[in-house]
Amino acid sequence: MEEKFPDRIDSKFRYVLVASARAEQIMRGARPKLEVSTGKSTSVAMQEVTEDVVDWGYGPSPADLEMAEAALEAAPQHEEAEEEVH
Question: Which residue segments constitute the domains of the chain, with CATH numbers given?
């Protein structure tokens, strides 16, 4: 089954992490955010991730990391002068 990922899902690995965490929440009693014909928690969770209705926080996105790295590289480097103590 080939899933279409939302833009913020950068890999199949992240998709699996997010969907499995959401499926566990549903199995523990969380209400589904979508009405899906199947009652399987994994199917519901996968559909929620595919439709981008699940908030998740597995770190910054790759685009955010690239922007942060570019900002660090562009920032002027300040070398503090060492003071000699006599």
Answer: 12-74 (3.90.940)
